[in-house]
Amino acid sequence: MSEQSNHVSPNHSPATQPDGGKARRLGVMAGLAGWLKLAGVWNMPAWAVSLVVHCLGVTALVMATLAPLPPSQKLNLTATEEPVAEELVEMQLDFEPELEELEFQAAAPQLKAEAFETPQLEVDPNMLGEAIAADQFMPAQQADFAGLDPNGLMSELSGMGDGIGNAAKFFGTGASGKRICFLVDNSISMSGGRMETALIELEKAVRKLSPTQEFFIIFYSDTAYPLFYPESATKMVDATGENKQRVSEWLETIHVCNFTNGREAITMALKMEPDLIYILGDGAFTDAADYALIETPTPGITIHTLGMHVKASDARRFSTIAEKHGGSYRDVGITPQGSERLRKNGPIPYHKKREGIWGIKLPG
Questions:
Q1: Percent of the chain that is helix, strand, coil (3-state, to 5)
Q2: According to CATH, what is the number of the domain 147-351?
Q3: What is the pLDDT of residues 39-53, one digit of tens each?
Q4: 214: closest CA among 161, 262, 169, 175?
């Protein structure tokens, strides 16, 4: 027994000592061997020896199971819990957008100014609304509409009508003005309800004027037919109730004639020194009045143009006239009221030669 104790005593160097768990198992084995030796000496019965052996075995198993983990295992667990800085850096997400993306989002769409420029229209003298050559009806020299204002008086009329009286409105095109002139095509081509519609809308426009406004009406075909023709007015008239009634009665007497000559009507209108002119037609002028009006815009006078079922080339010329004079162009058509008047009253009388007071410049 003493030899066994001396053998396991801690006389060895620390480098050769067994660990705690192994030492306990060796102690149990040594104790078991000692008990067996004592059992042989004391002549113990077999069941007592078996009991002692089983108790020692159970004790050894319990001690082995409950033995603490070796220090090396504790150190390994502790080491794995430390965060690694490099891994954290790699897991960072970059949500900053690219520079090109920011520039794309911030940049507003740039619209080119050319998209809004009005195209330049080329004048083609060969494109006339009717088959008859225009030079047969034109004077030797073109009328200089701008020359009708040698003292520059018309330039002082610019904006004169702003805020004065009611806004004149013809076929839905409205504008303010004190002195207003209406030029309306009464050529034979204004048929099928066109002329009826023009007369109805003209009467509406005049009735909406205020007494402080002045107006004048000129029809153009083979020549100019001024307000109250054949008892023609020589100057603008006030928009009084009496004059509005006279206009309503006079419009019922209008006939249509051959050709679409507008020079005399335009010249007469400019001499009235208006600040607003409406021109309504269904085609090109047969005396090239539209070209002369385009080439010699008159300062201080706004001109709005309206095309009654016109073809594209004529619409462009009407639009150019309005553009040169600070106005606007609008396509118009036959109204239900115009069609109804045509159905009820029949076609308006027309003249291809001189007959009475109409067609006075047509051959007899």
A1: 40, 15, 45
A2: 3.40.50.410
A3: 554 566 667 667 766
A4: 161
